[in-house]
Design a protein that fits this description.
This protein has 170 residues and is of the alpha+beta class. It has six helices and seven strands; from the N terminus they run αβαββααββββαα. A hairpin with a 3-residue loop joins strand 4 and strand 5. It starts with a helix and ends with a helix.
Amino acid sequence: MTSPQKAKGGSFEREIAQMLSETFGESFIRAPGSGAYVGGSNKARKQILHEGQIRAFKGDIVPGENFGRLNAECKSYADFPFHQLFSGSAKVLDSWIAQCMEVADQGDFNIIFMKFNRKGTYTALQLRQQVTLNLGSHILYNSANHGTWAFLDLKYFITNNQEQFRLLCK
C-alpha cells in the first residue's frame, strides 16, 4: 500500500506532466519510480542505457520528444521555510537542488517544481546565460555547489517563458 506522502508526490508529478503536456502540445509523463533509477548509487546505469532510456529514468518527468534536455524534479510538501531563502541557507532547497543535479547532464535545463499546502506552486530553476527569461517577482538563491537559481511562481514562469522554455530544453 502506498504511503500518503508518496501518493501526494505522485499526484503532483502527474499534475505537472499534464500541465506541461497541455502547454506545449507534447506528451510529458510521470517517470516510473520517480527518477531514482539513474540517480545516486545507480548512476553507473547511465553507462549501459541508451539516450531514450536515460531520459525516461532521469528526474520525475519524462519529457516530450522535443524537450530532451529537461531535467525536472517535483516536490509536494505541507510547508516550506521561505524565510531561509533570504538568509542564503535553505537546507531543504539545497537538498532538492542536489537531487536534481545528481542526474543532470551538461546542457540540461534543470528545474524543480514545488507545491506547498495553501501557499501555491513555485519553481526553482538553474540560471544560465544563453537565454533571457522573464522572471517577474523572484528571489535569487545561490547554491554553494550548484550556482544561482531563481525561485518564483510556477504559473507566472510558464505563462511568460514558453518559447524560452522550449529553447532551454532542446
